[in-house]
Design a protein that fits this description.
alpha+beta, NADH Oxidase, 4-stranded antiparallel beta sheet, two-stranded antiparallel ribbon, globular, binds iron/sulfur cluster
């Protein structure tokens, strides 16, 4: 069944597909655990869809921090479009599972139940994606995938169907990096983390900044994993 779901997700335009075990996410804050959403959950399917490179590269990186930039509006629109495409794919997978007699909850990319004050989703898609082996967390606090760096959007389907989880990715993209995501953050919301943490972010500072403009995503644009790969 997993391969059928994978093939269907590809047909629907998803670039990445993985399966996580919900057990690994039981340490999430109360109310944000997969079992809080779907008590009978056995598997979590994660889908990723890539943002266009040229549409990401148009983001201003410096000197354009006052007021709303038309470029930020374009990137926000593109990100919203990708999220909607991803949601169509996630919904189709969830419907298929439901038709086969399973429960399926779709954690959408376009809203994600996010609390804009703290940038906290009902479920943390990036943490689920790590458990599904799609990538690792970078110093920019984003999921870094080997294929596309952080230039992707994510959605997830929780289901009580039993699917084989994928292996974790063993990789550290941030080692030996010049940390431009940290140095170019316009509000100094990122710091180099200590060894036991993948990132250190002042979410409040980031959220306050995002509240004043369509998007920022400088830490996404400048990541070398996303913008130096030949693909
Ligand atoms: S720019 Fe470097 S330090 Fe920042 S997330 Fe990308 S790889 Fe990690
Ligand atoms: S989105 Fe912008 S403000 Fe927030 S951490 Fe990234 S670079 Fe900093």
């Amino acid at each position: 069944m997993k391969e059928d779901l994978r093939k269907m997700s590809t047909r629907l335009g998803a670039d990445l597909f993985g399966v996580a075990s919900p057990d690994a996410l039981n340490e999430a804050p109360l109310g944000h655990r997969p079992t809080n959403i779907l008590p009978s959950v056995k598997s979590i399917i994660v889908l990723g869809m890539k943002m266009l490179d040229a549409q990401t590269d148009v983001l201003p990186t410096n000197g354009d921090y006052f007021g709303v930039s038309p470029r930020q509006k374009m990137v926000k629109g593109h990100s919203t479009f990708i999220s909607q495409e991803l949601d169509r794919a996630g919904y189709a997978l969830a419907r298929l599972l439901e038709k086969q007699g399973f429960k399926a909850y779709h954690q959408m990319a376009s809203t994600g139940g996010t609390d804009e004050r703290y940038l906290t989703g009902l479920l943390s898609l990036k943490h689920i994606a790590v458990q599904a082996g799609l990538g690792v967390l970078g110093h920019n606090s984003l999921l870094i995938t080997p294929q596309y760096g952080p230039r992707i959007r994510l959605s997830a389907v929780l289901t009580d169907a039993e699917l084989q989880p994928d292996a974790l990715l063993d990789k550290n993209f941030c080692e030996d990096c010049e940390n431009s995501c940290i140095s170019l953050c316009p509000v100094v919301a990122l710091e180099k983390p200590s060894h036991d943490a993948p990132y250190k972010i002042n979410k409040f500072a980031c959220a306050q900044y995002l509240n004043t403009r369509p998007t920022c995503s400088v830490c996404l644009k400048v990541c070398h994993v996303g913008n130096q790969r030949i693909r």
